[in-house]
Every structure is written in structure tokens, then in C-alpha cells.
UniProtKB/TrEMBL annotation:
This is SgcJ/EcaC family oxidoreductase. Residues 55-167 form the DUF4440 domain. InterPro entries: DUF4440 (IPR027843), NTF2-like_dom_sf (IPR032710), Steroid_delta5-4_isomerase (IPR011944). SUPFAM superfamilies: NTF2-like. NCBIfam families: SgcJ/EcaC family oxidoreductase. It comes from Nocardia uniformis.
Amino acid sequence: MKQTIHDRVSGTPVRRGWRGLTVAALLAVGLLAVTACGSDDDDPAPLGTSDETAVRDLEREQAKAWAAGDGDAYAATFTVDADFVGVTGELIQGRDDIAASMRQGFDTFMKGTRVSVPDRVFVRFPTAETAVLITWTCILRTESDECSPQAESIQTRGAVKQDDRWLFTSYQNTRLNATPGT
């Protein structure tokens, strides 16, 4: 089964098969599980609050650090013990290792790239101190704002509120149009 989705910039059809739908379904199930884990005593933050603004601002802070090629600033948006799963499936644990990996990437294959403005954004607050942020973006390799279908991905971030500041504690990046076996 194929689903036709139009590219947000060019308007041309982008074909997505079972793989993209499966990823979306798994993320939806994961969000339901995270939401169900909150206790009845928790007071989740409603959407449109200063907490939602802070979590979305944190994502924009990451994008700004990426555009500047600043691995340390990018990693500063994470907790000290954060878990980061990159688009190729590598697991990076801890803010220091995330910073080192991002510095290496910005010095080599990610040099001069930037993250697009998210096409879609979902924010949920399973508890007052936790948030789930899902964004759809792509990596832009030129001055153009046009995303190629091969560069589109979905990111799921878990955030926690520590000392009145939101930080990401987990990050998963999944390529939407990856070819199986590559």
C-alpha cells in the first residue's frame, strides 16, 4: 500500500510506503504508552503554555546551534546523561559524547548544513515535568529551503524540566525515505 503525500515546498508528490507508515504507527503507540505511564497525581501542562513555548524554543536553540556548526551549543540542549540515537542508528550517551560527535560531524560531513524549519510539530506533556516533542524536518545542504525527499526525517525528543529549565534527555532521528538495506 502506498500513500501519496505532497512535498511541503515544491508541491510534487512524494511516495511513502509501509516503512514510513510503520514508523509513524510505532511512534504513535509509543506516545500513548508514555502518556499512560503518568500518574493520576500528575498535572500535565496544557498546550499553549509557557512550558510548551520553552520546549519549542529549545528545539529552535538546537537548530540555531546546528546552523552555526556549534557542537557544544547543540549538546547544551541535553541533560548530562542524555541518550541520542542518530539517523543511522548509532547510540550516543551523555552530553559530552553528543558534543564530541556533533563537533566531528560539523567538521566533516555535516559542514555547512542546517535543519529546516519543522514541517509539523507535536508536543505532549505526560506529566508536568516531562514532555514529548515530535518534529518533521530535513537537512538542507544548500542555501535553498527546498527539502529533498532523501533528507526528510522525523525526530522524537523526550524533555525533562530541571531547575525550572527544560532540557532534552532523549533523541531519536529516523529517516523517512530510507531504502531498506542501506
